[in-house]
């Protein structure tokens, strides 16, 4: 028996405060696809929006009305212009609108496609205007006046179609009356919902100078963020536009007080030999939305004078100076001076690679992710020593996502936590940092990257990584990490701070933090000055045992502290505390070995 697809079925819709029974085509794909988008895309996007009492909404690819009908009934002051070329879906849409009395919904049996010559532009314009006022017969007149353009329509999933000829045997050619995309400009919608494969960029090109307030839908092709939501696009441009597929890329924008761009904060202290190259590399990157904030933290060399001579009048460089307070203080100060929606922190002696930060800003905008990152490489002089991109690629399990000319992958945050702190090759969403109260602790005068990495990565699930871009991490004798002095004791205090914060915030998993602690201790003990090593090992043992009194730890056989003396010191510290109960109070205790000023004291 051949199934009659012309007979509609009834589906229940719950959206925008409405509970509706709608007729839908019997083809399962047409029903399920619309319901899935409503649940995963349109419902969540609209839940966070505040609409004006009146406006014009355009729904391109309305289907049987899963979005357009509950929207029209929830916002009776709005006019909803619903385009749907598929005959079965349009028939259901029209019947649903009539049955529910949605007088403010105008259903048009049209596709929206590439621009084409019109035989009678004036008649088309008149018919379009009549359709907006729901004049009887206007929709049919408009369909007769418009050219019939070719679309590639999927042979089984009939709801999927795109402009042009069939790309393969899974598609066949279908002709539909088509509204040229340029006519969307005349309609001047306040809200656009789009389901139009491969037509996304032409649609947004047509609306680039129209004051659109709300943009939502799904994309089948890459669309530049600036085209949709750039600084000079009129309207609020509140956007939620996921890319079809696994759900990684969501081009999103929420209007706010901050500039739609990226500020790169450069913390500077006595880096006259390198800082000019760093700033030059940043401003050479072709991106008007990228600005550089250099914070001189009381340098005693001529670093600031060199920058003033080279970049004092550069429109995208801001030079600030403050009393010495440490790198954390400089980074926080630069952040407080920033007015951008995204922020990054780089070291003055490093060399960001070409296209790194413009690419990361676009990735951040396309994904809506709290943190995005690129690769990095170690270099000394003019020679690259090592690249870590291949190592990170080994742990990537998710598929590759295309991002225009680039591609990206997802890295699990738990895995990044245990690695080297690399905050300088990352871009952060400013509202994420502000809402989570994530700052650099200013009493930590060295290696504050570590706690910032621990706390930011603990707050996310995954980090999108842009392929093909890299940050140059310079190796030279003056680096903090090469001094192997008492500043390494800051790591113990930072892990205690992270553990305390995790208990306060109720983290569900402390294992990545503990793994990071083990890796850090192993790295420090490999090269710490011999006179400091006993105190560091003692402090490590005390902190590890106290952490075990707060949270379950890995089994001893799974803990690979590399220094041979640590096992005995941990056993000794544990024996002293065996009779005491488990308690969160331990992370509020202190030890001489956890505080750098006490390690430096002459009596220590």
Number of strands: 24
Strand content: 15-25%
Shape: elongated
CATH superfamily membership of the largest domain, which one? Spore Coat Polysaccharide Biosynthesis Protein SpsA, Chain A
Largest pleated sheet? 11 strands, mixed
The parts where pLDDT drops under 50 for at least 5 residues are 1-5
| Average of the residue pLDDT scores | 89
Q: What is the CATH architecture assignment of the largest domain? A: Alpha-Beta Complex
Give the termini distance in whole angstroms.
Answer: 90 Å
Oligomer: single chain
3D architecture notes:
This protein is α/β, with parallel strands linked by helices and 604 residues long. It has 3 domains: 11-207, no CATH class; 259-480, Alpha-Beta Complex (Spore Coat Polysaccharide Biosynthesis Protein SpsA, Chain A), CATH 3.90.550; 486-600, no CATH class. The protein is built from 21 helices and 24 strands. The termini are far apart. The model is unreliable at 1-5 (pLDDT under 50).
Which keywords apply here?
604 residues, Spore Coat Polysaccharide Biosynthesis Protein SpsA, Chain A, 3 domains, 7-stranded mixed sheet, 21 helices
Could you provide a short overview of the structure?
It contains 21 helices and 24 strands. By secondary structure, it is α/β, with parallel strands linked by helices.
